[in-house]
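Sample entry (625 residues):
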Amino acid sequence: MKAQITKIFSILSSIPRGIWQVVTLAFFLIFILVVRMICWLLVSLHFFKKTVLEIEKKIISKAKNFSRKINAGRKDGIDQVDLIEFSLKNMRMRKTRTFVTIGGMTIGIAIIVFLVSVGYGLQDLVVSRVAKLDQMKQAEVSLHAGSKMKINDQTMTTLSEITGVKNVLPLISVVGKVGYNSSVSDMVVYGVTSDYLKNSDIRVSQGEFFENNELTNAMMPEVVQPEESEGFDQDISFSIKPDQWVKVRENSDRNSKIIGYTKAIDELKPGKEVIGGEYIDEDGSVQRDWIVSEFLLWEKLDCSKEDCSKSEYSPRKGGGNSQLSANGSIAIIGVNIKEDHDNDGDANLNIEQVNGSNETIAVSAKEAVVNQSMLQVLGISGDSAIGKEFDVSFVVVGNLLGDGVEKKESQKMQYKIVGVVAEGKMPIFYVPFVDLRGLGVVNYSQLKVVGESQEVLPLIRKQIETSGYATTSVSDTVDQINSFFATARMILGLVGMVALFIASLGMFNTLTVSLLERTREVGLLKAMGMRSGEVRNLFLTESIIMSFLGGVLGVALGVALGKAFSGIISIYSVSVGFDVLNLTSVPWKLAFGIVTISLAVGFMTGFYPARRAQKISALNALRYE
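Predicted structure, serialized as tokens:
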């Protein structure tokens, strides 16, 4: 064990002499100062005075032995503990000069700490206002401008499989025509889950969030193919209402591909009535009846009614320039149907109509969370908002819908306010995701990706962006804020360095004058056997002690000034109705760095006087007056 300890000490002693001297000196200085301070307090309290003094002597003796061990092999004979004790006695003999020198260093360091701490404090304040810790693990996924890609269920599945992704939350953005007290206003509506709201920087000032994390409901089921239908497959004859264009789908489901459009015919057409995917008719009822038949197909032209000379639809051509026909499905909403086994009458239903590419569907009422701006527009008092109801119809644009649909508008329905948030200058409100999904939405406006930690988020974003999507995160803003304040702290630190430079000049002057006054003392020490290197170390030790004490006291004073500054600002802030503000922050790395800088300044400042003391001749020094 002793051999291992000796080996460790030997390795440590190979460190460059200057660095080793400063590091070990700082260690023993802190140790001795702490011991002296504790013993002084105990003696002042008359707490076993004699015993405390004996313990103090033993501790100092142990420190000297330890100092000799870690400095084994060095040429200088006097150990660092003795140097520190000797230097402290010399400094106590010149109290005024020592106090002024340490005071200058303290003020210089305090100015640096205060200015830089203000930079850190403002940075923390701004970042806390911009983002919470959980938001630093999140990224918003959207499309690039002009991109033909889609954000849909497949996208969610793909992103959720990326390593480090904890959750993927969708968002649908539409326009809502809100009616209240005989007035109608257009507002932005967000269809989200309750998890989306909880993972966003949205705080409820009144009420609560709705609890709905469903992504699908009965209105938007999985695709049910006609051949999978049970208990219903009936031959019928039907006719489409005049002047109506109807979408022909590949399968009997609203999410199925649109293969073309068809219109009314002059006579009854044979087909089969089957059960397929659910949809909503004009009365708000859920329907699953579809008609499967062969239809003549038209394609929709990319032009408005005004620009198209004859019609918005053009016949789809097949071989031989004849019009193409194909087997497909149409929804039964308003077609005249005659069942082949019952000739007693016709059933007048409605058909899924393409009328200017607008569709009318119905959804059930849900709860809503609104912001203060919306309440102001509607003229609702914030205190009485919870429980109020308003009418709304949703307008969904084509990029969120399936192919061939330009716009959808729902019927009016009532929504009840269950929560109020303060965020947003524009009037907006949030509804459960399934409400907007029930409008036939197949593509989403954006996704929120939640990572398992802040560290994995950059890797997640890189993989998402490689797939062709755009990502944004509050961490981008935080990085910009950190970059700005890093520059600001550097400028503030340079301003504070001016004060530290002036203080270091004062220390240099003090040590130089002290050397002149102590020339005879230096000669006497050398005549008594102290080597030149030990004399140099004595002056260096005094310089480092003063700079170290100035650094520690400067950090303490800088922190105190920062707290006082924050307290004054907070008093004013609270008096005008705002929260308490903490405008300063001193990370431990900053405090450690400042003390290290003060030690370096002390070493460099004391190096020249120490070298001069080393070169003084003992005989000349003794003759010096």
